[in-house]
Amino acid sequence: MKWTPVTERLPRPYETVIAATSKNRVTTAFMTINQSWIYLEGKELYVEDEVTAWMPLPEPSKEEDRHNGKL
Hints:
mainly beta; five-stranded antiparallel β-sheet
């Protein structure tokens, strides 16, 4: 997978992605319809961080598929 700079393209609203921030943090997040980022990991909000790039989440492993009844 490859990082997509937010200056090139944004994810769909509410699509959970892996986000890289200006403070060199990597976390899962989604962007609202108003283009605000919501971080899904940790209790602290990265108020001073700005999302600089993102990538889609990877496909679930085959083991997860088995547990979810997909195989």
